[in-house]
Amino acid sequence: MAVRVHALTRSGGVAAFVVGGLTFAAGTIGSALLLLAFFISSVALSRAGKARKRALVDIGKAGARDAWQVLANGGVATAALMGWVFLDHGAAASAWFVAFAGAYAAATADTWGTEIGTLAAKPPRSILTGKPLATGLSGGVSAPGTAAEVAGAVLIAILTPLALLLALPGTPVTLHVLTSLMLPVFAGGFGGALIDSLLGATLQERRWCPACQRECEVDQHGCGTATEHRRGLPWLTNDAVNFAATAAGAAIAGGGWSLLR
């Protein structure tokens, strides 16, 4: 269905089938709840202001998500969930499950921030220097985008206790365990999104269009001119940064929950 409505490319559909299949197999509707909360909300927000987003010539991968984007957002979460099943045997009090939720909280916060931030009336500013940036470029922040990041992290944090209950039907889970899940998951979500912005402003590859005399993130600019590497690590693409952000979200959430215990 996602491929038919152009939310995913064919490769993205295959990757989503693998991620979704493993997620559902691990915790049935419970673990799938967090995946669906991220995916459905992200697709819905991507539809907002489509014309304006289509006009952003400095960034790539607008439109349907491919396999790399699916794995960048869902790969770490799936790996953490496999750790919950095989290393912690589906225990109710498990840092692996919290890390799984933290990864999706980071992916949701970052995606919401990007989708809402690109629609802001004022251009974003660099998270490092405070100088204005072209809309859509990595490393930029705005008030609406930051508020959306907080909201995305809150959504996943609130859903995590319910997800655990649904993933372990019939297993007694104490109220203390359920309530202690939310703060680390929120911290992982917002922290992961923050790290995404920091990496985008520092180490992510930034290219240069000689014809338009402006920075961009694509090999071929919207004007049709081949771009040149300007700064950052050539291999650190937006997908790689997203992967790092979800890994950070998982580590912050899982580590934070372990400390709170």
- Strand numbers in spatial order across the main sheet: 4-3-5
Shape: globular
The total tally of domains equals 1
Structural class: mainly alpha
Mean pLDDT: 91
DSSP, total strands: 5
Structure description:
- The protein is globular and about 65 Å long.
- The chain has helices at 10-47, 50-54, 67-86, 95-117, 143-167, 175-180, 182-202, 238-260; strands spanning 125-126, 140-141, 206-209, 214-216, 228-231.
- It is built from eight helices and five strands; from the N terminus they run ααααββαααβββα.
- The chain has one domain (10-260).
- By secondary structure, the chain is mainly alpha-helical.
- A three-stranded antiparallel β-sheet has the order 4-3-5, with no helix packed on it. Strands 1-2 form a two-stranded antiparallel ribbon.
Brief overview, please?
The chain has helices at residues 10-47, 50-54, 67-86, 95-117, 143-167, 175-180, 182-202, 238-260; strands spanning 125-126, 140-141, 206-209, 214-216, 228-231. With 261 residues, it is mostly helical. Strands 4-3-5 form a 3-stranded antiparallel sheet, with no helix packed on it. The chain has a two-stranded antiparallel sheet with strand order 1-2.
